[in-house]
Amino acid sequence: MVGKSNRAATVVVVLAVFMTNLDLWIVNVALPDLGRSFAPATLGDLSWVLNGYAITLAALLVVAGRLGDRIGQRPVFLVGVGVFTAASLACALAPNLWVLVLARVVQAAGAAAQLPTSLALLFATVPADRRTAATRGWAAVGGLAAAAGPVLGGLLVEIDWRWVFVVNVPIGVLAILAGRATLPHPAARENGPLPDAGGAALVTIAVASLTGALVQAPSWGWSAPRTLGLLAVAVVTGVWFLRRTARHANPLLELHLLRLPRFGVANAGTMLFGVGFAIMLLSNVLWCQDIWHWSALRTGAALVPGPALVPIVTVLTTRLAARVGHGPLVTAGGLLFAVGITWRAIAATAAPDYLTDLLPSMILTGTGVGLALGTLVAAGVQALPANRAATGSALVNSFRQISAAVGVAVLVTILGTRVDLSAITGFRVAWLLAAGLALATAATGLALSRPRAAAPPNRQPGDADRDLGPLPDRGNARSA
User: Fold this and answer.
1) Where do the H-state alpha helices sit in 160-260?
2) pTM
3) How many domains is the chain partitioned into structurally?
4) N or C: which end of the chain has fewer CB within 10 A?
């Protein structure tokens, strides 16, 4: 009976994670239709549908992860699913673009409560020796959603873009009902205050100002007072956030964790790869619909092969990762992604040529994502002290969301306010930039491949935590 209960709880967790990842892919496919519905919105305006979500998610993930440590992962997870589901309905009913953006921000708050607690609840349902595989599988759920998302998004957009949000409602309701009956009740282990709320506000303002400057610069001008003002706000609030974090008793981000070499390297790789991945994801949608003039449904079907490969590659290489380590897989994934996106930069033309242009690129980049992305997440989480599983996984995902926002903003900066045939050169520049970032990711894989320093003979198991200085107990991975 316990085994069946654990399996049911795992299904609930996977269902909720699938829903939040599905939303990302569906909304990307729907973005051109959103532009037509809310004309004369610019590409920069539309980008806030994606970036408002990503920035809010990045700012709240650590707070939500720590809240789960403090009062229990189960209630935080279920509330998160409820908020996400209600906000999805609000998105579907939005009368204008900025109401939609606001609803997306609320949606992100729900997702922030789900993601770190979902991994912690997953850990509570599997034996300790299967947690590496569980972590990679948790990350692979995003790939499974990515495989279904483009086609499902295309089908729904053919009816109306609002249906891309309505689809979350029945999934969310089912997850809440099943979760109340099956999810475990791991004990809360943290009694201290929540992380610095002021720090969350500062990092939100910093990232929002930076991305705002990037996406508006093509229409405002780089030397315009508004652009320079946003850049100045980003610098001031960013520095303020770092100084506040270094001195605060309960900082939003425990930056001392980055002193763990493998954790710091894995997060650097996650940031680099995330920017390139976001560029590829949105650029392929815009290219198919605005350069090749394909429908949302045809675009969705065309984009399936790449994301469909992600969960397949992740599952097939689980044993290989255990045998050879994280580094070689990250390096191979970064190299394949770089080759695939460079292929597009060379082969893409205004005349549609799926078999020799988009398809080979999708196969190469999809394989690269399957090798690198989940492995980077696993490398980061596995490098953490035992009492930082939930908080550390939230930090990893914060970096992923910030990188997604930066990637979208960089692409919008390169393409300008409108996407038409005049933007083809901009697409090539963006793809080559993504290839460079993937090569840098491959280099982080080489760093992860280096042997760990041998522990002194008298070293005790708890010494890893003491290397970082005093760490208050904020939750244990076994209870997570």
Assistant:
1) 163-166, 168-182, 197-220, 225-247
2) 0.83
3) 2
4) N
